[in-house]
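Chapter summary example.
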Amino acid sequence: MAGARRTDLLGRLADLSEEAIQRLSDAPGADRALGALNAMRDRMDELQKRVRGLEELEQRLTALERKVEKLSKGEPASSASRPSSKTTSTKSSGGSRAKKS
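The structure predicted for these 101 residues follows.
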């Protein structure tokens, strides 16, 4: 009997909510309000994506600040971040050269 009462209560609640949605859709200006709400949802989604991107950039910035701090104290950084001592050649103004075999 408790199961039947629960089903009846949930069914009644579903009917009432469907009726309320129907009344809202029949109200004047409801399409504009619904359109505005959908547009706001889309904008919020875009904003969340941008904020996630900013958080990523903030983490990268923090890591770079730590590296700069270490370098300013004179501590050696990883070998990947050190400039190489090899000399580099400048670009030639001509096209590509053929390799000698």
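To summarize the output: Residues 30-73 form the longest helix (44 residues).
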